[in-house]
Amino acid sequence: MEKEEERAVRARQEKARQMLFEVEASNQMSQTMKAQARQREKDEDIAIMKYNQQRQLAEYERQEEEKRIKEEKEREVQKLREMQEKAADRQAEIDALRAKRAFEAQERQARNIEKLNMQKRTRLLAELDEARAKQFMEKEDQLRRQAEWERNEF
Asked: How many Å apart are CA 144 and CA 132, to the nearest integer?
């Protein structure tokens, strides 16, 4: 009986040792699984952070590209405005020059007309003077002839 009791004690001890090994193995497996789960969570967190960083970088690059395009368009619009202003200024200068030339041409034409009118008036006055002189001479000639005729008649 003692031997049986000793065997039973050994069997219980062996069973307890066996159970202890199983619990340790189970604990180790559980700790390994927990460590793997923590590592997966870390890996997922890192992947999420990388994804967010890439998304933020892509968004930043997109905004920078939009900003660059907008600035380029603004420079182009400004360049076009400057060209339009330059063209408008040039057109204004051309219009002013045309107006000046037209005014000068009008003045020349007015002076020419005035000159022609003066020449015409001078010619008319000369013709009138000549006609008056001729008329005066004809009248004197007529008076002289009439006087001569009256003398002859007397």
From this structure: 17
